[in-house]
From TrEMBL, chain A:
This protein's UniProt keywords: Oxidoreductase
Protein name: Pyrroline-5-carboxylate reductase catalytic N-terminal domain-containing protein
Native source organism of the sequence: Companilactobacillus kimchii
Gene3D superfamilies with a match to the protein in the record: NAD(P)-binding Rossmann-like Domain
Superkingdom assignment: Bacteria
Domain (Pyrroline-5-carboxylate reductase catalytic N-terminal): residue spans on this chain: 8-96
TrEMBL record, chain B:
Molecular-function GO term, any one: monooxygenase activity
Keywords, ordered alphabetically: Monooxygenase, Oxidoreductase
Ranges of residues in domain Luciferase-like: 28-312
Keyword Transport: no
Organism from which the protein derives: Companilactobacillus kimchii
UniProt xrefs under InterPro entries: Bact_Lucif_Oxidored, Luciferase-like_dom, Luciferase-like_sf
Protein name: Luciferase-like domain-containing protein
GO CC, alphabetical: cytosol
Top-level taxon in the UniProt lineage: Bacteria
Keyword ATP-binding attached: no
Length: 208, 354
């Protein structure tokens, strides 16, 4: 048993959001979750897919949780007021997916900035850590406790330690890759995008 | 789970992957591919398969972008097989025209038309027909509402943001004698499952990766939602890729490693995911979403999926990545004549031992 467990907030109640909620619940965390609208709209789905997670409005999830997962389409996070996230640790689990976000990838990331750096640039009063983005949601759902690696990135030591612990508690092996700029390897087109590997496999992909 | 074997339905699905010529191993022309798919559909009918479902894609590797036209050709040259799309990309289609096209297939085929609606995992059709991807979800929500009114009502009034306003409309020809059977193809979005239950439609789970058992919570959600909405629980089906050989597991494995992998890698190229690893492919073949192997191997795996999830329907996607004409035909033939009877036998045995 941990001394005191963080309260997990999940913004996004789709495939990924529900999967993360379930992983957190299985690891005995308290979980708050929000869809894009009224929490009543996700009560039914939550009751089956992530029972015991608390459906709330997005603003409440952010306020009432210690660590916030962004699990919504990349084209939607800027609809949420950045001020709501002030002082919070934010886990960016989003990916650019042209079939949802549109064909103009440059808006979401470019040569200079990864999509996570852009998320951090938007959330000026929060600390962003990238994690749980490179593995498909269906693998996340079925591959915990099988020595699979979740690669994470960021610079804030305290936030990184929290996320590392979450990765372990969710049943995965943490691998630190560097600052948010290094997440170019984790996004679409990067060598680790889609990776569902053990440590040997991850190191092989990184030529290490 | 106890399965009512006599009520099980087995389908054959294709996206219209262009096949390869047996002699020269070269890709068929679109003309040859379309004619070949008609032959395959006719074979499926002769062998007694319950339903054939054709996907709608607007990509180079596929010859079917207008599945209803192909179904029309099958309608007049087949006798019993039900004729379905899988899926119709509703968001970028016109619900009224859709009604008219399906009423036409239903008329020609004497009541054998079915439809699987979906948001589609490919979205090439959006810019092609002048739709904006950012309306992806709203378009589907509005159009499924209108389509439902069209197939359930006599005269329809409609007004919503993304769809034409209709006043007292009655499209022709009419679908007569029955209500068009509708399924929604679901890839794992909880909202889609709820919508399927809301309209009392059948649920078609597209399982293209991972273990089938991970979909059990979605089935539970579907049933619970139907109970909440007071709608009828429809048929629950799974659609997955497969290749069947008589008794050589390795031969099927190798065909899949060449063609299924190629097909997935091609899609991956667009989406920025890496090439399929041998480990991933092995996982999918052994316990995941690929039903690849000999008659006995595939029958066991299909029976397991049906029993684990309590299914009413199983659809095998054949010809993934193209494949040789003869290998496609062999999969269809073995599926219908050997695998399905064997699946029923296995499930019957399991029922008796329960």
């Amino acid at each position: 048993m941990k001394m005191s467990k963080l309260i997990i907030g999940i913004v996004g109640a789709g495939k990924l959001g529900m999967t993360l909620a379930k992983l957190a619940l299985d690891a005995s965390y308290q979980v708050n979750i929000a869809g894009s609208k009224d929490p009543a709209k996700i009560t039914l789905a939550t009751s089956v897919l992530a029972p015991e997670a608390q459906p709330m409005y997005t603003r409440d999830v952010i306020e009432k949780s210690d660590i916030i997962f962004l699990a919504l389409p990349l084209s939607k996070y800027q609809n949420i007021d950045a001020k709501w996230f002030a002082g919070k640790t934010v886990v960016d689990s989003m990916n650019y997916w042209w079939e949802i976000d549109g064909k103009t990838s440059n808006y979401y990331y470019d040569e200079q900035q990864t999509s996570s750096e852009k998320v951090q640039a938007y959330l000026t009063q929060s600390v962003v850590v990238k994690a749980f983005n490179h593995m498909g949601y269906h693998d996340l759902a079925s591959m915990s406790h099988q020595q699979r690696v979740i690669v994470y990135a960021g610079t804030d030591e305290i936030a990184l330690a929290k996320v590392k612990q979450l990765i372990i508690d969710f049943g995965f092996v943490p691998y630190y890759i560097g600052n948010l700029h290094a997440t170019s390897q984790l996004q679409p087109g990067g060598v680790l995008f889609g990776a569902n590997e053990d440590m040997i496999g991850i190191k092989k992909l990184l030529n290490k | 789970m106890k399965i009512d074997v006599d009520k099980l339905r087995f389908g054959l699905d294709t996206f219209g992957d262009v096949a390869y010529n047996d002699t020269f191993h070269t890709k068929m022309s679109y003309r040859e591919s379309l004619q070949n798919i008609i032959k395959e559909g006719q074979l499926a009918d002769q062998l007694g398969l319950d339903v054939i479902a054709l996907g709608e894609h607007h990509r180079e590797e596929y010859s079917i972008s207008s599945p209803e036209v192909v179904l029309g050709a099958l309608a007049s040259t087949t006798k019993n097989i039900h004729l379905s799309t899988g899926v119709t990309v509703l968001s970028s289609d016109d619900p009224v025209r859709l009604y008219e096209r399906f009423a036409t297939i239903d008329g020609i085929s004497d009541g054998r038309a079915e439809i699987i609606l979906g948001r589609g995992s490919f979205t090439e059709s959006f810019p092609l027909f002048g739709y904006d991807l950012k309306d992806y979800n709203d378009l589907f929500v509005e159009k499924v509402g209108l389509f439902n009114d069209l197939i359930t009502g006599e005269h329809v009034d409609w007004e919503s943001k993304h769809v034409q306003k209709l006043v007292n409309v009655r499209p022709y020809p009419r679908i007569e004698g029955h209500k068009l059977p509708v399924s929604i193809g679901v890839g794992g979005t909880p909202e889609s499952v709820l919508r399927t239950a809301y309209y009392g439609y059948s649920l078609m789970l597209a399982i293209i990766a991972g273990e089938a058992s991970r979909f059990a919570p979605y089935i539970e959600l579907y049933k619970k939602a139907a109970e909440d909405y007071g709608t009828k629980v429809g048929a629950i089906g799974v659609h997955s890729h497969g290749i069947i050989t008589e008794d050589d597991d390795d031969e099927a494995y190798n065909i899949g490693w060449e063609y299924i992998r190629n097909s997935m890698d091609r899609v991956g190229l667009d989406r920025g995911w890496p090439k399929m690893t041998k480990e991933r492919y092995d996982f999918e073949v052994i316990k995941g979403a690929y039903y690849v192997g000999s008659v006995e191997t595939v029958a066991k795996r299909i029976a397991q999926t049906i029993s684990e999830l309590g299914l009413d329907r199983f659809d095998l996607v054949y010809g993934t990545g193209g494949q040789l004409e003869k290998d496609r035909m062999r999969t269809i033939e073995l599926y219908a004549t050997k695998v399905i009877p064997r699946v029923k036998e296995i499930l019957q045995e399991a029922n008796e031992n329960e």
